[in-house]
Amino acid sequence: RQDNADLRLTEIGRQVGLVSDERWEVFQKKVHLLEQEKQRLRDYGATPADEVVGNILAQKGSAPLKERVSLWDLLRRPELEIEDYIKAGLVPEYDLDILEQLEVQAKYEGYINKQYEQVQRFEKMESRLIPEQINYENVPGLSNEAKQKLTQFQPMSVGQASRIAGVSPADINVLLIYLEKERRK
User: Fold this and answer.
1) Over the stretch 82-117, which tens digit does the pLDDT of each residue have?
2) Which of 35, 54, 106, 155 could be joined to 75 by an S-S link, Cβ 3.0–4.6 Å?
3) Would you state the pLDDT for residue 1?
4) Which residues of 8-36 are buried (b: 16+ CB within 10 A; e: fewer)?
């Protein structure tokens, strides 16, 4: 996303000498401020008795609180915006860029975490090697099409096997279980 390009790329730019000391200092302050405010929103526990938060929720037509919830978690609700917190005096008026980043990070944190987990699983599958001498006919539970395709293409890793047309996610799970059993022998 373009709205967080500086957060993703400034550190890399610094490592290769493209970011000046002045720009780096500005970036470091921004990151510190983002983390500080994010933590403050996570630490602020709104309760059902919290009138300020209750008023925001009522004005936005959002469900009232039934238990303690952090302002960070509340910001994930689609109808709530960081601007609501500013108007209520819950968040200081920072640079617009900082405020937008906070809102985007809160709203998309779950998606970002899922994507990160997918990348981790993918990297794990890429690093999981398949022995050269494997006979796919001896892998119980593997579909006939998967046996044929895997024998034909001889993938070196589970990641490669997962990208072969005709090899389903279920086949990959069967293969992973088989490889683990073989490893333990």
Assistant:
1) 999 999 999 988 888 889 999 999 999 999 899 989
2) 106
3) 64
4) eebeeebeeeebeeeeeeebeebeeebee
CA dihedral (76, 81, 86, 88) positive or negative: negative
Mean pLDDT of all residues belonging to the chain = 94
Residue 84 CA to residue 107 CA, distance in Å, equals 14
Superfamily of domain 128-184: GidA associated domain, C-terminal subdomain (1.10.150.570)
**Secondary structure class of 142 (helix, strand, coil):** coil
Q: What is the pLDDT of residues 28-40, one digit of tens each?
A: 999 999 999 999 9
In what helix (H) or strand (E) does residue 115 lie, and over which residues does it extend?
Answer: helix 96-127
Any idea of the CA torsion for 82, 87, 88, 89, to the nearest 10 degrees?
A: 90
- State the DSSP string of 17-56: T-S-HHHHHHHHHHHHHHHHHHHHHHH-EE-TT-HHHHHH
Q: Classify burial at 54, counting beta carbons within 10 Å of its beta carbon; exposed 0-12, middle 13-18, buried 19 or more.
A: middle
Domain 2-116, CATH number (from 2.60.40.10, 3.40.640.10, 1.10.10.1800, 1.10.287.950):
1.10.10.1800
Closest CA to 146 of 171, 179, 180: 171
pLDDT at 134 over 80: yes
